[in-house]
Design brief:
TIM Barrel; 10-stranded mixed sheet; 2 domains; alpha/beta; binds S-adenosyl-L-homocysteine; 14 strands; two-stranded parallel ribbon
């Protein structure tokens, strides 16, 4: 089956004219439906015989919302998407006063092995195609008549830079003026620190905001919770972040999840300051969303506040973020796991 959301307008037009001998204008018609999240039966201005052929050979909605959980605390919505082959990925829509941010997944599962993360418990199942990542944005956008999604963050399950080509293709589709036409400044990519890919990405013409998931400035501690540290050292990852900033002049952020007794002492704050000193970077602190399968606990609120004040006193720019949607399995991979555990299968 061909995923039509993988194509931009010229590619779609070429595909339809070559495969189904359509006239060129049909490409634009079908494309405008795909961007709206429509399925073939809704494409009323497209010839019925063609629609039937498309149904047999192609997929219009690459990610379908099959379950939504809404947080009573903050209105955060967690969505479960089903891909055409039955695999499940999740997304989170967070509501802020400046707009709605959708967190999308880039892989089914993940092979990075971070010790606190639920997405990686079963390893990597497969990469998502560009259209399957875009399909999540389109599906959520089409829930309301006005634009529902104003910002996109690549922070769902998966390591975006481990699915490099499809992620770059996705971003080009997302920014395409024929499509959703997002602006680069409204998009953020988060990575666990694949330093080579971070630099390669800096050299693309895609100046999105870059977040490095650091979680510890101590090499040994970080290697314990984030195995990627054995491949790319903390210094290589931070150098790559600096390279990204110098090249793009976009905001760079360090993500720091506070884990009880692991990375939340004064010494940890000091090491963080030493590592990042002289860099123009903002630190996002968040308390761990404890994952049932993992033995790690969140730092308590008081200690988290203390950690923030230590950083502030050291002259760092930092914020302690709310745990969005903690009551609805807000952390990466949690909802998918619960759904699979409860329903047994991904394919119904
Ligand atoms: N692979 C990418 C993006 C996915 S994870 C990355 O590592 O950045 C998005 C963010 O959520 C990362 O900072 C990740 O470390 C963090 N995260 C994962 N599980 C978490 C949990 N249980 N509690 C808090 N943050 C978590």
């Amino acid at each position: 089956m061909v995923i039509l959301q993988d194509f931009d307008l010229p590619q779609l037009t070429q595909y339809l004219t070559e495969t189904f001998a359509c006239q060129r204008f049909v490409g634009a018609q079908v494309y405008s439906w795909l961007v709206k999240g429509a399925d073939f039966d809704q494409m009323t201005n497209v010839n019925k015989a063609l629609r039937e052929k498309l149904k047999e050979n192609c997929i219009a909605q690459s990610a379908k919302i099959i379950h939504t959980a809404t947080s009573k605390k903050d209105g955060t919505q967690k969505m479960l998407f089903r891909l055409a082959d039955g695999n499940l990925v999740e997304g989170v829509l967070m509501k802020y006063n400046y707009g709605n941010t959708l967190c999308v997944s880039t892989q089914v599962g993940c092979r990075m092995g971070c010790k606190f993360c639920a997405s990686t418990l079963d390893g990597l199942v497969r990469n998502l195609s560009a259209g399957e990542i875009l399909g999540q944005v389109v599906a959520v956008n089409s829930l309301t008549t006005e634009r529902n999604v104003t910002n996109v963050v690549l922070m769902g399950s998966g390591e975006p830079l481990d699915n490099y080509d499809n992620v770059v293709k996705f971003l080009r589709l997302l920014f395409d003026q024929n499509g959703l036409g997002f602006s680069q400044r409204n998009v953020s990519l988060s990575t666990c620190g694949l330093a080579d890919k971070m630099k390669q990405f800096a050299d693309e013409d895609l100046a999105v905001n870059m977040t490095l998931s650091l979680h510890s400035a101590d090499p040994e501690k970080r290697a314990e919770i984030m195995p990627i540290t054995k491949q790319w050292s903390i210094h290589q990852a931070v150098d790559a972040l600096r390279y990204y900033f110098n090249k793009t002049k976009r905001r760079v952020i360090v993500e720091y999840t506070l884990i009880d007794g692991v990375n939340d002492s004064y010494g940890d704050a000091l090491k963080l300051k030493q590592l990042l000193s002289g860099m123009s970077v903002h630190i996002n602190l968040i308390r761990l969303n404890a994952v049932k399968e993992r033995k790690l606990n969140a730092t308590d609120t008081d200690t988290a506040k203390k950690f923030l004040s230590w950083l502030e006193k050291m002259g760092m720019s930092a914020t302690l973020r709310r745990q969005m949607g903690a009551d609805i399995d807000g952390a990466c991979g949690q909802l998918r796991r619960r759904y699979i555990n409860e329903k047994g299968a991904t394919n119904e």
